[in-house]
Amino acid sequence: MVVKIDNLVKRYGDLIALDHFNLEVAEGEIFGLLGPNGSGKTTAIMCMLALLKFSKGEVSVFGKPMRPDAYDIKRDIGIIMQNVAVYDELTVFENIDYFCGLYILDKKKRRELVEEAISFVGLNEFRRFYPRKLSGGLLRRLNIACGIAHKPKLIILDEPTVAVDPQSRNKILEGIVDLNRQGATVIYTSHYMEEVEQICTRLAIMDKGKVIASGSTSELKSMIRTGEKITIELIDEQDTQVVKTVEQIQALPTILSASLNHKTISARSEQNRHSLSAVTHLLNENKIAYGRVYCELPTLNDVFLEMTGKHLRDQQGV
After folding, report:
1. Taking all residues of the chain, what is their mean pLDDT, rounded to a whole number?
2. Residue 273's closest CA among 290, 239, 297?
3. Where do the domains of the chain lie, and which CATH numbers do they carry?
4. How far are the Cα atoms of 1, 278, 279, 291 from residue 229, in angstroms, in the given order?
5. Which phi and psi (to 5°) does residue 68 adopt?
6. pTM of the predicted protein model
7. What is the pLDDT of residue 317?
């Protein structure tokens, strides 16, 4: 295991930030760490890096105990946090060179790595720019370059795509996948579920300081009660007959919930139960005119909502 955390407990006074927190990240994974705001994700990362003291538990990285002075371990770790941390008085090239120099003393080798990092994040045209002249997306790319220039074996990215444009977001995600292909193990936190589904090989959901579920995306989706979502677009405005039909749909034994919003009926079916034929039978029986009908499988947001009681999209940008 690249990272192994056993029964970690972290307290801030009476507040338990991590409650016997356990985590394992295998070599070569892009591991997604998800959780509501305040669930303990950042605290877990800080403890993992021995930047915070904890009350109880053990942390090992690369098979060795992690300590504040474990510099042999830390030189193989790259950390990119949500808040951009670069020097405004240094150019793009100088910033990357400075952070790479914390790990690589040989000037020739360092320059090669800096040039490679600049090309990797697509900042060749901006190497002489100061951070204040960069857009938000370019600034994020610079932040990533500073964290990965020394070729770490473990890369931790804490919401690296917050408030960036779609082009920069795609560039960042493609870069993460490329780093993984080159041999880096990645721990990735985000509230954008399409990103997590796109790049993560395995993930864990945290709540109240502990992991409540872990596995692949498909494995997590199979853990919840919610199944497919049925959406029916009505042709006519809602009336008492439509309201009655929605109540009948809600009463079906395989339906968890049904709702009516203007000219759209939405129904949630139980996992592995197919309710579409029963729903359309009621619509036809009650002579409800409808147009498009479609079904959607559960999303990660559905998993998150059922397990934590919160929508992941409500956490975005906070």
Report:
1. 92
2. 297
3. 3-216 (3.40.50.300), 225-297 (3.30.70.980)
4. 38, 14, 12, 17
5. -60, -30
6. 0.85
7. 42
